[in-house]
Write a structure and sequence with these properties.
- The structure is a single chain.
- This protein is mainly alpha-helical and 344 residues long.
- It has 12 helices and no strands.
- Helix 5 packs across helix 6.
- It is globular, with a radius of gyration of 19 Å.
Length: 344
């Protein structure tokens, strides 16, 4: 919803608010086997006093509830308006963080051009697709579709990154993950009762994240600007993109209902802005391997929130398929233990 700036740190590759990697030479969970080359991003000064486990739990809750907030937001506003509000409030939070840290925006037209493309694939496009998908599918299904992002990343990296070699473990995880997707969708029933368009949008949104990751890895690796600066610029560009598109497909709301308006504000300020700062801090403290585990908690929270708070129906194949998807995603991210070197 879990996404993304340029991609996120140990992000959950599918996190609802992807951003540029947070640690140098860190494993990118959306692209198995790859390494990051960005300079480290220091933790935001407001959080170090709080134990990382608490911050991790708060991050999982924020991203898990993002899909519920999107659903509530679409009850009062058009999907593009929900996305624009989300990006606007998220950018505002990062702007405050940049002001506190006295960080400057990146320089150079080349960097801004690459950030504009990253903003489209990592923010504007997936955020909009998820908002449109939730017009016709439950927030629980959207959250589960979001968890397929590591699988898409695995598949794309094998094609687009020549240095990423397939292994039996990764291929098995990829196959298991997509078997889980078919289980969630009820393929044996001919997808009866399933809104194909909405589900396809949610899956395309999760695919957009690793596409953006690969682009960022090829174009912005080695960029000298701080991650906070790059992320702030990326969200700002995504906000501009939505500011241009939204008036073309929507009309100004005639009312601003409190519930949907509050949902959009929280989705942006917490689910996009604050979550990015929390994520960077967690990854900087405990590393990307532990940080990326939030990916596997998000669909659980999204499902629980949708069922208990929105009254969404849940058939047996949805949680079973979700578990299979998460198992496959975890398998694609796992690595065999290194055998100790033989003693002379």
């Amino acid at each position: 919803m879990s996404n993304a700036t340029a991609p996120r740190p140990g992000p959950d590759p599918a996190s609802p608010s992807p951003t540029i990697p947070a640690t140098s030479a860190a494993v990118d969970p959306a692209l198995p086997g790859t390494r990051r080359t960005f300079p480290a991003f220091p933790a935001f000064p407001a959080f170090p006093a709080v134990d990382w486990r608490i911050r991790f739990a708060v991050l999982a809750l924020i991203w898990g509830f993002s899909f519920l907030l999107i659903k509530v937001g679409t009850h009062g506003f058009a999907p593009f308006q929900v996305t624009f509000g989300r990006l606007f409030f998220g950018t505002a939070v990062l702007a405050v963080a940049m002001a506190v840290k006295r960080d400057r925006l990146p320089r150079g037209l080349r960097t801004w051009g690459h950030l504009a493309v990253a903003a489209f694939f990592l923010n504007a496009l997936p955020f909009s697709l998820f908002a449109y998908s939730e017009l016709t599918i439950p927030s629980t299904l959207a959250g589960i579709c979001n968890a397929t992002s590591p699988l898409w990343g695995m598949a794309l990296s094998l094609v687009a990154l020549s240095e990423d070699r397939p292994t039996r473990r990764r291929v098995a995880g990829l196959g298991l993950g997509f078997l889980g997707v078919l289980t969630v969708l009820g393929a044996w029933q001919g997808f009866s009762g399933l809104d194909v368009t909405g589900t396809a949008m949610a899956l395309l949104a999760s695919l957009s994240y690793p596409v953006g990751w690969i682009y960022v890895r090829r174009t912005l690796a080695g960029e000298s600007s701080s991650h906070l600066s790059l992320t702030g610029a990326q969200l700002f560009l995504a906000t501009l993109q939505l500011a241009l598109v939204t008036p073309l497909f929507t009309t100004m709301p005639t009312s601003f209902p409190a519930g949907p308006l509050l949902a959009v504000l929280v989705l942006g300020a917490l689910g996009t802005g604050l979550a990015i700062l929390l994520q960077y801090g967690v990854v900087a403290e405990v590393g990307p391997t532990t940080g990326q585990m939030v990916t596997y908690v998000i669909p659980v929270i999204a499902t629980a929130a949708g069922v208990t708070l929105l009254g969404e129906q849940l058939s047996w194949n949805t949680p079973v398929g979700a578990l299979i998807v998460l198992a496959g995603a975890a398998l694609t991210q796992s690595r065999p233990r290194k055998r100790p070197a033989p003693q002379p």
